[in-house]
Amino acid sequence: MIPTHYFLILSAILFTIGVMGVLTRKNGITIFMCIELMVNAVNLTFLAYARQFHDVHGVIFVFFIMAIAAAEAAVGLAIFISLFHHRDTIDVDEANLMHW
Amino acid sequence: MEYAIFFVFAAIAVVFALLVVLHRNPVVGALSLVASFFALAVMYVLLEAPFLAALQIIVYAGAIMVLFLFVIMLLNLQHMAEPATRPVQQFLSYTSSAAFAIGLIYYLLKYAVFEALPSGFFAADARTVGIRMFEAYVFPFEMVSILLLAAIVGALTLSGRMTGSREKVPAPEQPGVEAR
Questions:
Q1: What is the 3-state secondary structure (H, E, C) of chain B?
Q2: Which residues in chain A have Cβ-Cβ distances shorter than 8 Å to B158?
Q3: Which of the residues A63, B25, B63, B178 has the least number of beta carbons within 10 Å of its own beta carbon?
């Protein structure tokens, strides 16, 4: 059995890679993929603690997080399509106005 | 053996996650993220949650990332050059995220190292998860279905299929002439 903190450290590394991507990249969809990476890192933490404490509630939480990530992906990508139709770019630095 | 599987797939997950961040082409990024999610599904199997490993592959790698790929290809982004990030922003991002990682791992090793796993059988298979979910989480489960419905309507509205707001060209000058 692999100890829990191995998974926690892997999760921390993946989360940091996601943070790095959000901070450095300008392509909106890449930033969105980095957010998905961070969500997955948190899922890994939930499952590691669920096994550590023998508690199924952590697993159920991950199930709900997956459903919400699907909804978030649908709405977020629709926002980027709309932005692309208005601006011909998905560079997030270009999207600095609340209206157009 | 278990450790070998863990380290191999942890390395795969980290390398492909780095490829998402560092590669300029978003198609390569999306496919790398799929590979990273597959490696995470192996982690879920190691954590005795086979049901969620299957969900990870079906929902994340199969549905969400395909949606990402469709949007990237629909917008034809692979030929669009991404402007370079300012050096000062890049420097600050790398240093702050490195500091964040070091702090996170330090405190994990200080406070989150457990002596041993509790004994006894634990498996979060579909049966266990389903029974516990419909005992205590029926209401959130229904709320998630409503949330997904709202997301469908929101996505349709935002992408302009319902209102016809996709028109980027201005209205023609001559009155009485339809744009379409």
A1: CHHHHHHHHHHHHHHHHHHHHHCCCHHHHHHHHHHHHHHHHHHHHHCCCHHHHHHHHHHHHHHHHHHHHHHHHHHCHHHCCCCCCCHHHHHHHHHHHHHHHHHHHHHHHHHCCCCCCCCCCCCCCHHHHHHHHHHHCHHHHHHHHHHHHHHHHHHHHHCCCCCCCCCCCCCCCCCCCCCC
A2: 75, 78-79, 81-82
A3: B178
Q: Which of B71, B96, B144 sits opposite A81 (nearest CB)?
A: B71
Tens digits of per-residue pLDDT, A56-85?
A: 889 999 999 999 999 999 999 998 888 888
Paired tokens of B113: 């190292």
User: Please, which pLDDT band fits residue B75 given cuts at 50, 70 and 90?
Assistant: confident
Q: In percent, how much of chain B has pLDDT > 90?
A: 48
pLDDT in tens, B113-164: 887 777 777 777 888 888 888 988 999 999 999 999 999 999 988 877 655 5
- The per-residue pLDDT of chain B, averaged, comes to 84
ipTM of the complex: 0.91
**In Å, how far are A7, A45, B2, B109 from B112, measured between CA atoms?**
11, 11, 21, 6
Closest residue of chain B to A20, computed from CA coordinates: B97
CA of A92 to nearest chain B CA: how many angstroms apart?
Answer: 11
% chain B with pLDDT above 70: 88
What does DSSP assign to residue A28? H
How confident is the model at residue B76, as a pLDDT?
81
Name the residue of chain B whose CA is nearest to A57's CA. Answer: B132
Q: Name residues whose C-beta falls within 8 Å of residue B51's C-beta, 6 or more positions apart in sequence.
A: A59, B124, B125, B126, B129
Nearby residues of A53 by Cβ (< 8 Å), 6 or more positions away: B118
